[in-house]
Amino acid sequence: MTDEIAPQDLRVSHEEREHVTKLLAAHFSEGRPTVDEYGERTAAAAESVTRADLNRLLLDLPGAEGRGPVRCWSCPTRRAT
Questions:
Q1: pLDDT tens digits in sequence order for the chain, 81 residues long
Q2: What pTM, to 2 d.p., does this model score?
Q3: Rounded to 10 degrees, what is the CA torsion of 36, 11, 64, 43?
Q4: CA atoms within 13 A on the CB side of 5
Q5: How many domains, in total, are found in the chain?
Q6: Less Cβ around it within 10 Å: N or C end of the chain?
């Protein structure tokens, strides 16, 4: 058994939630999600617990292709011992 957690299962910070909300706002201003979708996605971003939760909100929007999970660059990297 390993103590390593998959990147998509890491818990997210307020900063990461806010980052995704800003990305959603940019896509909304370009007319991609509808008003209802934007409201649903921003509410879901605020309630997200893991990177996978946040990533699901962006997958069908341009720029998401080939990207890994949302990352917190200020968070320490967890290493297996």
A1: 568 999 999 999 999 999 999 999 999 999 999 999 999 999 999 999 999 999 999 999 998 765 544 554 444 444 443
A2: 0.76
A3: 10
A4: 10
A5: 1
A6: N
